[in-house]
Amino acid sequence: MKHHATDAHTLAAAYALGALEDSERQAFDAHLQACEACRQEAAEFEATAARLAAAASQPPPATAKAKVMAAIDGVRQLPPRVPAPAPVPALGGTVRRRAVPLALAASLAAAALGGVAVWQAQSGQELKQQARQARQQLDAVGAVLAAPDARTVHGKAANGALTTVVASARQNKAVFSAANLPAPEAGKTYQLWLDHDGTMLSAGLIEHDGTVILTGNTADAGAVGLTLEPAGGSPQPTTDPLLLMNLPA
Fold first, then answer.
1. What integer pLDDT is reported at residue 127 of this predicted model?
2. 176 pLDDT above the threshold of 70
3. Which entry of 1, 18, 147, 235 is 20 to 30 Å from 41 by CA?
4. pLDDT at 94 over 60
């Protein structure tokens, strides 16, 4: 699919996630040489995708290795099955860009679920429920990150946490990601807020490093805040904000 020259400015997210055709990527590489705004935006998307994946990752439980090693002797070895490669149809640029959320979800899911596959202590039903929740979260995050109008802003909280917000005005949604967020003391939790002309409305909770979709209406919010609140959250902030930064325009 051919694009107008102005379309190049909307391809930063797809470029950062490797979702462009070869010809489109070459054209965008050439475009980056002359467009500082797109170079910065593509770099921010790449950094955000890496941070989201790192925030979603989980180490396997301490008992996992012992259980796997104990089960090895009872597993019958089979020769590898190598099916004949099937032809891969070429995909158009439009289809590839529509698949960006799925590509992001797959990359984040690999980080988030890599250590979960051998968790034999949990029931299959629990794993299915966790997988469904993870898919829903990753799909929502991927849709915002890959939105053509997605904009990114980075910040640093008073407690040293590194934060990223990616917002899409068209979707009226925003994603909040935190790294190096210290564990809250017992009975406390981190709460997110949206600033609506000086009125702070709760936008959800975040307990540790991770990525969440901000709840509430982001369309007319000017800033996002982070405070430390009693477990379960508060109707209004009860402590000084650890972070208050403008939402990306």
1. 62
2. yes
3. 1
4. no
In a domain, 84, yes or no: no
Mean pLDDT of the chain: 74
112-132 confidence digits (pLDDT tens)? 444 444 444 455 666 667 667
The span from the CA of 193 to the CA of 195, in Å, is 6
Answer yes or no: do 180 and 224 share one domain: yes
Q: Decide: pTM greater than 0.85.
A: no
Same domain, 121 and 217: no
Quick one: tokens of 122? Answer: 């949990």
- Residues 12 and 134 grouped into a single domain: yes
Q: Which two tokens stand for residue 130?
A: 């966790």
CA dist 54 and 111 (Å) reads 7
Q: Residues 225-236: pLDDT tens digits?
A: 999 999 999 999
Looking up tokens 């797959």, which residue turns up? Answer: 106
CA dihedral defined by 173, 177, 183, 187, rounded to 10 degrees?
Answer: 0
Which residues constitute the domain of residue 125?
7-57+99-148
Q: Are both 53 and 140 inside the same structural domain?
A: yes
Whether 113 and 191 share a structural domain: no
- CATH classification at residue 186: 2.60.40
